[in-house]
Amino acid sequence: MSLMRHFTQGLGLAVAVLVWTFAGAASAARASLVMTASGPVQGFAHDGVREYRGIPYAAAPVGNLRFELPAPVQPWTAARKATAYGSPCAQVARYGLTEASDNEDCLFLNVAVPMRLGPKPLPVMVWLHGGAFVGGSGTLYPLDYLARRGQMVVVSVNYRLGPLGFMTHPAFGAAHNGAYGLEDQRQALRWVQRNIAAFGGDPANVTLAGESAGAGSVCMHLFAPKQSAGLFHKAIIQSAGCTVPLRTVTESQSTGLKLAALVGCDNLAEALACLRSKSAKTLAEAGYQVAGSELMAFAPTVGLESQPKQGREALTSGDFLHMPMINGGNRDEMRLYVAYQVAAGGAVTAANYADQLGAIYGTHAKAVEALYPLSQYASAATALGTAMSDYMPGVGLNYCVFLKTADLAKAWAPVYQYEFADRAAPLVTDYAGFEMGAVHSAELPYFFPNFSNKAKLDGPNLAAPSQRLAEQMVAYWSAFVHTGKPSAPGAPDWAPYQSDASVLRLVPGATGTFNAGAEHNCSFWRGLYPDAL
């Protein structure tokens, strides 16, 4: 064969490959182009999914839209590139771990869709991030793993935080005062109802899920049936005590007044305009200063159109959205906050253990110390964190209050109660001066690989036993998203909750039912705090 013939054939092959490549790229681009009600969005494909990042679901809440309900987004006509996350909402960095943002233009959501769609629309899971209502964002959670393994459409949402999302003030509108972040979430759920079918999702099969403040938000949407009806059909509540009382407007607006005074907006007649004139960074930093050590200083307020009833009242009366729920939390929730305290210089020692208990439990401290003696624990910090994880008044991150939600809700809807108990979970803080265990948020890397509370997702890979547990957990959660009943191949059956003894403990190689009430001494705590438990 002549050299010219080799060259000609080679050139023809190269041209064919080039044409095929361009055609393939164009086909992939077309497959990733979706028309939403506001305009077309162009996503991207990777690792068996199509992703769409940074889609605005509401107008930027700036200027006169600050401290107002979310407004409709301005439509667009040209394809909007949806390959990069939108900005997190304004917040300060906390615990030396989370990242700050000064940007108020933040009402974005992200969508992940399995590459291969079947003949029927896929179920949808909407994820609300945690962060004590003052931090976090949807950008911290890689969605592809859940979408791919669970064969479902997964959506994550940003919502206004801290003073900009949850501050109560007499100058704000009465119906939604202190609930703008909740209303952002509802606006995102309305976006899902209008648009998710175009992505291959089923708007009639939406599960609302969240962790910590995100889980608390799920509770609040359940407890506002008039406002939330039709927006979702199943609920997943990870680490939130739905029955812990929220503050009323009267109780919570003192925080807003203090913040307004701190930034020079203490003239009530001019407060709204004054607060709107301040930068998002100024308000976020002032919120951090005003909150001090109060973990839930900017928790949502009850008694509004946005959030009409306390959780316990709604669950007792049945005046909430009745639907299947996954509910529960982690074995050692509050050890994380003990670690934060120790890392900040607040030592917990044998010498001050009784005083630490007294600061939390008051006149009950001696009884608590008798049940949680230092002799049973490796350190005073571990003992304190264990007691707090079993029950702590006024805080929703403890197992006995998780059980209270299940006890009340089971009369109206199936509840699947769990405890995450992998004490080999990766640390979610750099501090490791005592046994941490399965602390608050430790389960997140099991659903969102390499989750680290940072945009760079630099958390470690799970050890092999923990990875097998992660696959089991994703299977349970995915089955629930599909059908309302959690199940996993080769794993124990997960029956609806009936009593303290019917809780599924998730632990590597030993997942099974156990008596959570006995393990967490809930009868003891109910005796001390009958009005709460």
Question: What's the SSE blueprint?
Answer:
Elements: H1 3-31, E1 33-35, E2 40-42, E3 44-46, E4 49-56, E5 80-81, E6 108-114, E7 122-128, H2 144-150, E8 153-157, H3 162-166, H4 180-195, E9 201-211, H5 213-222, H6 225-228, E10 234-238, H7 249-262, H8 271-277, H9 280-291, H10 311-317, E11 325-330, H11 335-343, H12 353-361, H13 365-371, H14 380-390, H15 399-409, E12 415-420, H16 444-447, H17 464-483, E13 503-506, E14 512-514, H18 516-519, H19 522-528
Parallel strand pairs: 2-5, 7-8, 7-9, 9-10, 10-11, 11-12, 12-13
Antiparallel strand pairs: 1-2, 3-4, 4-6, 6-8, 13-14
List keywords for this structure.
14 strands; 533 residues; Rossmann fold; 19 helices; 11-stranded mixed beta sheet; globular; alpha/beta; disordered N terminus; 3-stranded mixed beta sheet
Question: Your description of this structure?
Answer:
The chain has a domain at 36-323: Alpha/Beta hydrolase fold, catalytic domain (Rossmann fold, 3-Layer(aba) Sandwich). It has 19 helices and 14 strands. It has helices at 3-31, 144-150, 162-166, 180-195, 213-222, 225-228, 249-262, 271-277, 280-291, 311-317, 335-343, 353-361, 365-371, 380-390, 399-409, 444-447, 464-483, 516-519, 522-528, and strands at residues 33-35, 40-42, 44-46, 49-56, 80-81, 108-114, 122-128, 153-157, 201-211, 234-238, 325-330, 415-420, 503-506, 512-514. The strands form 2 sheets. The protein has an 11-stranded mixed beta sheet, sandwiched between helices. A 3-stranded mixed beta sheet has the order 1-2-5. Strand 7, helix 2 and strand 8 (153-157) form a beta-alpha-beta unit. The termini are far apart. The model is unreliable at 1-28 (pLDDT under 50).
